[in-house]
Specification:
Helix content is 41%, strand content 14%. It has 8 helices and 7 strands, in the order ααββαβαβαβαβαβα.
């Protein structure tokens, strides 16, 4: 383990560089907002967003060490959820929109940026399933992938939690495939103890720990798409969950009392 002074210096340098890219991202999105107001929206925004994620990832010290499978488009992407890092990891690999908890919208700067690039927000305990399903249906129907962290909350990556099936209805209604995506930090033999953002951990404190370490290793496994036509949403959720667990070689979380949509939501 490096001395605390070395780790703090590393984190400080990374934070300074990250601030620079946040400024770049803000400037680009202000330009996009202006172009929309003038009736000339940028068609290249998805490519710009992916470029931004690709530049930010190494600043965070994250290395995408392994990618298997091929992303399909259009698709409803269903992933396990370990950390806030998941968004930048997936955003660096594919042009996609995300479903996020409504609290993210109130985060300084990040919330505004998320809204500008097309993030969909879900309210904790809210009765908005049909509205979200309709929005997701419109986007995937127009060829834009949408990422759903179907567990509804983060885990430490050692098991796959229960999936909320309701939002998978949009895939069935549009006929687009569901593509399970498995995310793992560290390796199966040595899971990463720092990357998971779970429980009551503080975002700022967790982010500082991530910036302090030398590197964070992540694997992403794009599983075979699941044909959604003729399959109910619960079966889609179960098949997606099983595919992710198989890729990660981890167990499914034991059944517990049923969860309601919005009881827990992802970031």
């Amino acid at each position: 383990m490096p001395p605390a002074s070395t780790s703090s210096l590393r984190a400080s340098i990374r934070l300074l560089r990250l601030s620079g890219y946040l400024l770049i991202g803000t400037t680009l999105l202000l330009g996009f907002t202006l172009s929309q107001a003038l009736g000339r929206p940028w068609q290249s925004l998805p490519r710009i967003v992916r470029w931004w994620h690709q530049r930010v990832l190494p600043i965070l010290g994250v290395e995408v060490a392994k990618v298997t499978g091929t992303p399909v488009k259009p698709a409803l992407i269903v992933a396990n959820h370990v950390s806030w890092l998941d968004i930048t990891v997936l955003g660096s690999l594919i042009e996609t929109d995300f479903l996020s908890k409504i609290e993210v919208r109130d985060w300084p700067l990040i919330g505004w940026m998320s809204a500008q690039v097309g993030t969909l927000f879900i309210k904790r305990g809210g009765n908005q399933a049909q509205s979200l399903t309709d929005q997701i249906e419109t986007r995937v129907g127009n060829g834009k992938p949408v990422v759903i962290f179907a567990e509804g909350s983060t885990s430490d990556g050692r098991q796959v939690r229960r999936f909320f099936p309701r939002l998978l209805a949009s895939a069935r209604q549009t006929g687009v495939p569901v593509q399970p995506v498995a995310i793992r930090y560290g390796t199966n033999a040595a899971p990463d103890p720092i990357a998971p953002f779970v429980g009551d951990d503080n975002l700022v404190a967790h982010g500082w720990r991530v910036l302090q370490r030398r590197a964070t290793r992540v694997e992403v496994h794009f599983r075979e798409p699941i044909v959604s036509e003729g399959i109910d949403r619960r079966s889609l959720a179960a098949q997606s969950r099983a595919a992710i667990a198989a890729a990660l070689e981890v167990p499914l979380e034991p059944p517990s009392r049923p969860l309601r949509l919005g009881q827990e939501v992802a970031i």
